[in-house]
């Protein structure tokens, strides 16, 4: 997802003097610390396992200790696959030059770097993940809003209540239930395809977690059970306690507290309205302001309340959500979740829950601590619990008695001097420029879905990825380096790997689709070959044989050792002009969407990755719906999110047409409709 943005041209600094021995010491020290962190995690997980052995049912961490370590691929395999991946994107001279760089690296520099990676893989539980978190996320000094954070939407068609405080009450209570089960390890273990155990480590920091800004690098602060929530509404920050008498507040009690905040007519204090813009702007000004203005007095107390909260809640004052009667409703909804007003989300929190006055909700999630499927797992539980277990009264209120004796939510107090207000305004203006540049299009593809694709005997993901390649070529007239996020959570502490979707086989298929002389039989044969290639690459990525994380770690070691590698520099600076990700659905299977087809989620998305490219998140929902979340930048004259959505739709239908007779009335009619629509753009 948004990690592709951070993975290009990141800055890396090493402090030791330029003496080889000292640099070698530095990398050994770093590897040692990685191992110490890993062993501390094991100790914590071992305590959880002890508790689990007393029960019969496998629980969240039951298989954690048995997960294998992520293997370090051989240098030869990685270089071979890398050269294969860039072949369709380079002319002969460019490819020959890249081959020379790659062979020089393999013959003279790779062996030394590889030895350190193998050493790290023996000592630490994962040779990639801690460096990935630190150098791709935490050391980035640019704004995390849009560039890194991602969002997840509410149910697409259903809004169980239109009362804002009631919906927030049920959802927050469901989140507290999820957190309690998480802390006790009571969730069922995560499994790929329902059978293969997956790593659950990322879930540990879901709650009570905040990214803390620093001058050179941020840190992720994770605390134990937190008993309060911080709520933002119309420029004011409120603290709400989540417990009373040793138990969670009931949904009806939470509704009462949130309604009290909605009814509060007090004005923001000086500097309070846009305070959260500090988390939306560049990291260094925020880090300096935090030290200078928030390290003592009431400002420190109030900031501590935010950073130590279970999570952050925004009660927005403008309705959002999908409305089929409004053409751009998904676009507006996505931009609201992704960046809002640039000051009404606390972008440093592990996630901000956003509640709208029409009852819709959504999430903005910080990316360093976990990837989208982890947040999605929690979100599925929350939505199912909200709608099918907690429910609402006929009037739309939370069920249960109203406890009017609860202490009132308390306003956080601030004393923000003029100088700090100027820093806040500068951060706001910087963030607003980024937000205003986001060109977003949300598109529901309803012509067919997973059900029909499977009848074509092909992988739905491969089908969509090839459609994206076809759409990209039609949109831009060229092929580009394409990033698809794959997971490596079948390994301990695994996160993601990259699938390079623009293969030679995909290029051959797209060219055939654009060749008027090619027959459908030829196109179909090339499609199957390209789809098979994509599936094989996806399997390699999932099973530890991907290339990009290996190259990334080789580069990190090279910087520690002071080894200059033109090959690695070239690889790590290549732009991903098309960044894609599939967000999984039905991880928990708590809702039978065949029985309740209106209770499907809309998925989520992320901001544009390249200045002149596209970000595309897609969600395969049930058998007959695929949602696309498309982003790019208004400042680029060559991209247009709506146009790209139209190209995706046509590409999907054209590929489907390979499997059906040419005179199929529905397909022909849809193609005509799309072509006519394009004439009016």
TrEMBL record:
Its EC number is 2.3.1.21. Catalyzes the transfer of the acyl group of long-chain fatty acid-CoA conjugates onto carnitine, an essential step for the mitochondrial uptake of long-chain fatty acids and their subsequent beta-oxidation in the mitochondrion. Pathway: Lipid metabolism; fatty acid beta-oxidation. It comes from the Eukaryota. Its main location: mitochondrion. Coiled coil: none annotated. Residues 1-47 form the Carnitine O-palmitoyltransferase N-terminal domain. Residues 70-650 form the Choline/carnitine acyltransferase domain. It catalyses: (R)-carnitine + hexadecanoyl-CoA = O-hexadecanoyl-(R)-carnitine + CoA. Belongs to the carnitine/choline acetyltransferase family. The keyword Transferase applies. This is Carnitine O-palmitoyltransferase 1, muscle isoform. GO terms for molecular function: carnitine O-palmitoyltransferase activity. It is found in: Mitochondrion outer membrane. It holds the Pfam family Carn_acyltransf. One of its GO terms (biological process) is fatty acid beta-oxidation. It is an enzyme of class 2 (transferase). Gene3D superfamilies: 6.10.250.1760, Chloramphenicol acetyltransferase-like domain, Choline/Carnitine o-acyltransferase, domain 2.
